[in-house]
Amino acid sequence: MVRDTLKDENYFTQYIEFYMSSFPELLEEYRLNHLSGDSKMQLCSNLWDYAFYVLAYRYSRGDTIPNIRDSVVQMIEMLKLKYDTLASVQVDSKIKQMYERLDLGNLYETLSLLSFVVSLRLSAQEMLTVLNWVGHKGEDALLDRIAYGFGDKTRGMAPHSTFPKIYDPLLEVIAAPPEQRPDKLKRYVDGWYKKMKPIYWHDNHKGAEGAYFGYWCFEAALVAMLWKIDDSTFAEHPHYPVDLVRHYRTQGG
């Protein structure tokens, strides 16, 4: 059953197939020896984005969480590729910083990946390995607290969120007494789409065909799973990916 309310199954299938068919060609191009470091970083950045799009399209289409596992693995592989490329290529420092920086889109996609990692119950070591490839330790308060929730007790805690207008309310959920967290998380989910206006995909359903992959507050599900928050009062919210949380909890969470 399609989870998204704005598009139909055929729409999502069309674009899943398009991006999946693009992967082999992009990977082959990435492996060409004559490519510059800048070109390699651009390609692995594109591959990471494509992997995220497929993951989001598949969730919107209604694929079961276990069946989405291969797309989660693919996104992790592209994260590793990006990590290795950034560590190995020789490029101008300003160009490298452009690819390394934690912009809003990259943070959202990273938090989305982590929500699937938790839902699928990857091992603690796998989770910590993914976090190592994500990087940005001590740079963003939300990411640091999520890492701590994963079990990384050695990670330094940034004092502030990189995007406070968007993510400070989610930090308040984590910091609140357990009995207050459900109401605070509900308020976060209710106001989430409006707060996300600065991100690249906001209002994409009104734009070019294929640009829309669904509007999902994956980070709320991530926090609900890690901090064991009751989500019953907002489980049916159109932007809340409740199936991630349900799958996680049926597996023993």
In short:
Helices cover 62% and strands 0% of the residues. The protein starts with 8 loop residues before the first helix and ends with a helix.
Q: Can you offer a commentary on this structure?
A:
This protein is mostly helical and 253 residues long. It has helices spanning 9-30, 37-61, 69-88, 93-100, 104-119, 124-134, 141-150, 164-175, 181-195, 218-226, 242-250. It has one domain. It has eleven helices and no strands. Helix 5 (104-119) packs across helix 10. The mean pLDDT is 92.
Count every helix, treating DSSP H or I runs of 4 or more residues as helices: 11
Distance from N terminus to C terminus (CA atoms, Å) equals 24 Å
Describe the largest sheet. Answer: none
Tally of DSSP β-strands: 0
Low-confidence stretches: none
Strand content: under 5%
Radius of gyration, whole Å = 18 Å
Q: Structural class, from helix and strand content?
A: mainly alpha
Mean pLDDT: 92
Instruction: Tell me the series of helices and strands, N- to C-terminal.
Output: HHHHHHHHHHH
- Helix-residue proportion: 55-70%
Tell me the domain tally: 1
Morphology call: globular
How are the elements arranged and paired?
Layout: H1 9-30, H2 37-61, H3 69-88, H4 93-100, H5 104-119, H6 124-134, H7 141-150, H8 164-175, H9 181-195, H10 218-226, H11 242-250
Helix pairs in contact: 1-2, 2-3, 5-10, 5-11, 8-9, 10-11
